[in-house]
């Protein structure tokens, strides 16, 4: 027997457990640890630095860091211009909005953002989702002004929603968007966006507003007479060029700047081509007028009319969650590579303010897109100052160069979008999911096919629902296993996993999975009964049932009732029940509900070995002696 | 070191794991075990007996059992008549339907039911819920025929839904209706039903169709001028009499038949009173005409018009789930008392057919109500034959006695309903929940107040959502704890629970809660980092992180990625990571995803003791020697 015993101290107070649970739920990263041993002035300074990270890195900033940030900033600016125009076309808003959206939000993020690597910009999936949701109420062609104002409003709602999540420390919500869901969602989105680009690539004029594969392909082939082979040839050349530069980057990572600059090259070449062919009959379609000047103020255009609110709310909240998931996940993954930390809730506040301020200055939804952030990281950025450089670059572009880009051919934009999207279809990840976890693969497939064949939000929701179902199924059917003693040791392990482990005669040792909740009470009772029946069916009389609760961290009242019922059922069968290693919370509930009094403190043990020994002390049988001899042979 | 090692056998095949998971999810009670060693003829016989339980008990049936069943059957018949009429009034359908509903369904259950104690009948909560849902589309006053047909249709839908759940082995759905939810729901329903009875008790004519407390009280007090003191006095006398018999039963359980017969006594007294006062000016309101004759066929009235389908579907499915939860839970709890088993899925099929057949013979929703089943059990019923006796009793009543009950005063019904409902408000249970588990108490309160102040289905849904949220929160924030070695033993236990447990120097031993899923990957990473920071903050260098996975029965791909990230982060900090006791499924996923290759097989241990020893073999430090001395002193 071990000298230590189960600790039956009186349960912790409700306030203590509530406080500890709230802390684990909302502050798992313990963000205020650094304030503990500070004086008031130091505390104020740290608080300011905590909420406005620029004060944290600016004092240590030096020229050497700036040289890196400048280079990174210029690189991402050259990417931001073509991407901004392209994605604005996807969102069916004027292309200049795309340029605006890389200016003001980048400034805000440079001040509030806590990640060193995130580069701010618009994203394709969310742009299409906005067009899809708002477009279902207001047509971007029939009433472009109202449509644009609703897009600003959606961005404002996104911002408020994101900031609220951050302040309320509800980063936990974003955790429920699983990696499998995102893989499938991105893949599906990439497919439908690529197909949409056939419009630009083939020069089709009449198109559908729906996003699913069937509608889009139908629209493309119905309008075969509109196909223009000149546009298609130019587009394919551009696409091949872009894909080649991407391939080059994959082979020689040092040449990342080639692929980063390629879209800009395509735009410039396209502009030249469009400029020189502008008087021909079959002239190439271009994005059209881009006026000089900085972001106009748009706060007065925010439209909270009850007629449109359901649509702006839906667009704002869904894109808000997706944008957070992308931005935070990307910031985190680069931070992990450098052994740094990113505070998810702080990032949410930064993204939130970025969108609130942005929506007041003619910007639509921005986040930290994967492609831009990767380029930023590869260009060697050191701090969020690279966003500042991009903002200045964008400002100069808006003030002096914007009109030049009005010659950008639509076909160049389509090629840029297509090449970006093809990179988002992650075959390897899907195959990895298939190999490791079939359920994760199903979640991924659900998102992929849902997005591709129904609508983007339906696909996303089906996938999230499947993922939640899995978590609930886990709770409803916790794994439980029969334990056996490993030869020549004191360890009790799963008999299915370790074939050599064998149960002591007359004893049924069971390890329950976690937790014992209302959803699995019936299951656990049935499962225990089945083991007893099986053992008895095999001619082994069961005298003791030992429940190892090591893995059980939580129990509710129905769970306790289940244990009481099992105890009662076993009593009728003249079987003794023993509890092994109840954890803190479980033991507390057992004491509060008087279960401990019912089963008796002498039936609760600290480890399996003790419980087995105690079982033999009470039941001296012929079998036991045999087992004792075997044990003494071991010792 | 233990002689046994972690078993790195190649992972099981997908088909094997899928089969075992499906079995645990859908067949946890292993219903076909009895067919295993049977010949074809025996198998056919057992299958028939399995699906039609009457073939199981009828061959062993004898006169002695029949004597008990006869007594029980007569007792529940005397309860079924007043209850049937009362609850039919609650559902706002002709009272005769209530009598029909104890005839045909009881016959069906006697053949198909697997519980020996369940007595079939209508229930108050579902009756009101049907009235509420269907009444929101079709008024029972303006179009009583259509309303009645929709009630039959809802019962038919309930039956199909219940039978389908049973055949698909989806009993798991009912498991998600927790005991806390049911306690709160029943309490809230009891309150609103009691308040509704004020209408009958005070003789008010104008009333509301809403069910919430505020509307009902408003309706009662607005129509003060309609109050009739004569009715109120009679009602109160009846109510006091009924409550007294209930009190008597609680004090002397042998007198259960007094309280079982009391409603019948009230009805008979009420009828006599109404009969003799029938010519007075202020005559007592009675239920009105009840025709002789058995259930008319109603299959031709089932109405699947798309206009009403959403309402009948909603009523059918919600009441179906509640009825199942009540019927199965009650059958189970009485079976447990007698050390018998009730197969939930089989019961669902029985309830389902009962309602399908019932709805074709002018019956509305029936299940195994608590009050009737308890009376049946206390009367000593031996088999489902007591339902057969009740069906015959009901048939005789319908054929010969029905018109007599047309004098039943509404006030007597109100008193019967109120006294039944007051027994459903389970203060003690709510207090027990409050003491043992505050979250369960909140779930209960949500159902109670939701039902009492909003609507019945809203209350139910809020409560179920809260319960699901809890299960999800459990998955999102699994309990993890720091382990320390108990003095003079080889056991590692939670340092918070066992203050004397202390961590070996340089080693951070962590026990993770189950499971590692996408929803908690970030949390687990942060939590591990926080422990390392805390230890380092306290001046203890961490050289090894030992993750005890004993409690982890499941992991998904994001979970594996989390472990990879933790491994990478620890490598940067020059900390070694070791895995202790991975369970079967977890180890399989680790092998499939090559995590085992990344961390190395030599870093995976069977028990904490081995992992700690191995850590010291690799890191000979001054600290270690101190710890070694301490250990040798122990051994």
UniProtKB/TrEMBL annotation, chains A, B:
Report keywords, A-Z. Answer: Membrane, Transmembrane, Transmembrane helix
Residues that span the membrane, as ranges: 65-81, 93-112, 118-135, 147-170, 176-195, 231-249, 255-276, 315-336, 348-367, 388-405, 411-427
- STAS domain residues are 497-615
A Pfam family annotated for this chain is: STAS
* Major place of residence: membrane
Membrane topology qualifier: Multi-pass membrane protein
Under the heading InterPro entries, the entry gives: S04_transporter_CS (IPR018045), SLC26A/SulP_dom (IPR011547), SLC26A/SulP_fam (IPR001902), STAS_dom (IPR002645), STAS_dom_sf (IPR036513)
Cellular localisation = Membrane
Gene Ontology MF: a single term:
secondary active sulfate transmembrane transporter activity
A single cellular component GO annotation: membrane
CDD domains registered for this protein in UniProt: STAS_SulP_like_sulfate_transporter (cd07042)
Q: What domain of life does the native source organism fall in?
A: Eukaryota
What is this protein called in UniProt? Probable sulfate transporter 3.5
* Biological source species: Populus euphratica (Euphrates poplar)
